[in-house]
């Protein structure tokens, strides 16, 4: 049934249906409402989850690691500075192969302090070893919360997963969302079978050991191997989910009017929707433009992106965070994906939307116009910046 | 697609009714968005909230800059918030005021359709005290929404939180706002 709900309500609904054993969470704008909704479900006896109200996000992720190692299905949610505090422990969660699923209400990192959206928090955790998915809408946030659970817990994967949804733009905006019936969602997510749970005292195992130069490298290589298993698991889960939901999820990226496009934008998150409107506007005038929306950011689907853009002449890559002293992170990943390609489009890197700066259809139409005569060795460009 | 911009002050419930409007529009089978503008929130400070209503899926996630309808819940914002800015020339400006349309036209310089209603008085007489609900009624009327759908949604949404008596007062306030703006079509 279609309902009007905010992005955080959509995420909380997915969490209610997943009903993890443990949620350890600390409130931070614009994530707080997710924690509040879930605390209400626990209080009202709607879910039987051990809610751990910790004193910081560092503790939240630490409690998640402890509970997950003990054998529990574990979830959390955070944003910005909260993720910054979690990152130290998130690396450990990934190295211990703990499938902790979290919603990240994307918010700019301080300073200056700001509460609005950009992707600097997600980029901070880029190399943590967590799977990262970006969502265009509240509907996608709901859908990917359920799918992320299955991907993270896949027997060959067992890694933490972050579901990114743009702070305020998606978290606090009421939109039409169609959740699955409880039974269907619960059946899809299924039961979780932990590997070597600490509480299985009859079968003791060592968790989080010290590793010196003689073993550290091999352990990290093994972790990389787990990440390499994500794409196949992701496609398998999408296929199953598309079948039960009637919504089409097929691939690590979504192309929009891309097949015959001469110019294209590459973007992650809610701005992908605004970009669709820009594409429609220009298509109505006969311009061959398209969009590539990236769902899966980690692991990065370079090959698939290179294939999807192979025929495009000019591409603007939009990063919603600065990597000071370098080009944007998404741009760098894309450039690497094309390094062996025979035909390379001309790439331009735009930085947009920092600290919640609005990005409009008109501005994206303008980006398409600028692309017409883009030169390959230009530096960063900016959208909607006063200079 | 229709876009609406609400002007109110923190605590007057502009955001709340923008969300109820989205639910009413969903009942009509529309695609909807409702979102407030977040700044340093405090009681009494100017706040804006927005609605998008469309027959097709809404993909845009940017702000609203040229609304079809602007709603002023608090008349004291008329000069400072410039609600007519960006409002489409053939749009509708709905103001909670005791002034006449001509006076509002003079104060705002807006040349399109102006709807005036004394939502404060309506709220007082209904016994609710909040102008947001009669303004919601006015917007629903301007949009051409069936009264029955608006009433059903208000009863369902507010019925969870309010006593029967207070709910009936709110329905009366919604109805009075709806009647005050009925006949003005600018929404669709």
Question: Care to describe what's here?
Answer:
The complex is a heterodimer of chains A (387) and B (188). Chain A has two domains: 3-243, Thiamin diphosphate (ThDP)-binding fold, Pyr/PP domains (Rossmann fold, 3-Layer(aba) Sandwich), CATH 3.40.50.970; 254-382, Rossmann fold, CATH 3.40.50. In chain A, β14 (346-351), α13 and β15 (381-382) form a beta-alpha-beta unit. The mean pLDDT of chain A is 97. Chain A has 387 residues and is of the alpha/beta class. Chain A is globular and about 65 Å long. Chain A has 13 helices and 15 strands. The relative contact order of chain A is 0.11. The longest helix of chain A has 16 residues, at 80-95. In chain A, α1 (7-18) packs parallel to α6 (138-153) and α3 runs parallel beside α4. A seven-stranded mixed sheet of chain A has the order 3-2-4-5-7-6-12, sandwiched between helices. In chain A, strands 9-11-10-13-14-15 form a six-stranded mixed sheet, with helices on both faces. A two-stranded antiparallel ribbon of chain A has the order 1-8. Chain B is an alpha/beta fold and 188 residues long. In chain B, 39% of the residues lie in helices and 20% in strands. Chain B contains six helices and six strands; from the N terminus they run βαββββαβαααα. Chain B has helices at 14-27, 101-108, 119-126, 132-143, 147-159, 164-181; strands spanning 2-9, 31-36, 46-54, 69-72, 92-96, 113-117. Chain B has a six-stranded mixed sheet, with helices on both faces. In chain B, α2 (101-108) links the parallel β5 (92-96) and β6. The longest helix of chain B is centred in the C-terminal third of the chain and has 18 residues, at 164-181. The termini of chain B are close together. The chains are: A alpha/beta (387), B alpha/beta (188). β8 (174-177) of chain A pairs antiparallel with β2 (31-36) of chain B, so a sheet runs across the interface.
